[in-house]
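Fig. S4 source data, part A: sequence.
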Amino acid sequence: MTDAPITYTAAGVDVEAGDKAVELMKSAVARATRPEVLGGLGGFAGLFDASTLARMDRPILATSTDGVGTKVAIAQALDRHDTIGFDLVGMVVDDIVVCGAEPLFMTDYIACGKVVPERIAAIVSGIAAACEQAGTALVGGETAEHPGLLGEHEYDVAGAATGVVEHADILGPHRVAPGDLVLGLAASGLHSNGYSLVRRVIAAAGWALDRQVEDFGQTLGDELLTPTRVYAADLLTLIRDPQVREAGGVHALSHVTGGGLAANLARVLPPGVHARVHRESWSPPAVFTTIGALGKVPPLDLERTLNMGVGFVAVLPESAADRAAALLADAGIPAWVMGEIHAAQAAPIEEGVEVVRGSKGVHGGSVQILGNYAT
């Protein structure tokens, strides 16, 4: 027992630090806006004028929520927090664009053991910069201090976003047909999946984050903290391009996240089709082969866990492939034909090669990844 009064501050929560964090992040958040946003920071809810949706024939809202996973442990170990926001935004808004929707607005949530205003401001500034790049408004967020639950230097981040697509323009399995090509879009690195495996491998190998790795051209920590590429704005440009639409348009998109390339591609294929993807069409960046070799990770396990250098996949008619690849290249995203879609009953199925038929409750088409990676 104690006779001394116990205050909220004594319990480990610093309200003034939270207020300071908001002041530090204001200018960055102000840039992540759209004309439809009403009001500013500090309200109980973010406001977005939806009247423009009334001009759509049949507006369909799309929503997504996600986090960054254990990649935050790398940011915390390096005490660098201004890039993790790109990982969060990429994981959320790029799921929305898969169905052809434009991400309109986003909110974020940060839970931490102790509010350090500069650290929180750095995280949110990264989120705001990524939202600005995606054309998505950051309309609100929450920072929660959880002393006793999280360590003083620990935090986790999550976010949610809402987008809209005209019903007639929804992308997905219903558009995919035999004869379509599979276009791979390069990742910027590991993105935000598989870090539990990656961290286990480097810990077992005894590699420090400040280790200079010749194959990476930078330190291990810099490589692991490379921000997730945010594709949303460039994919919307691709989807809306008149020449691409005239050539048949984009039929389906797949965000290559947890589960790897094959499982995520299978999620956007209809029953009755089979995709053949050819490893020889690309060479995974050094970080993937290094993690595989360092941890003696079985190749299939590596492919089920990491994106192997492919961050997104587009399925589209052969007549649209060249234009699509050129548009993406102009946006700084290398893209290449990596496979093709066949009718399942006529598809050449390779014996002894794993056939993947979807994940996360989706049972559609099938995928085989064939051959060896280019060297």
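Fig. S4 source data, part B ends here. The first helix runs from residue 15 to 31.
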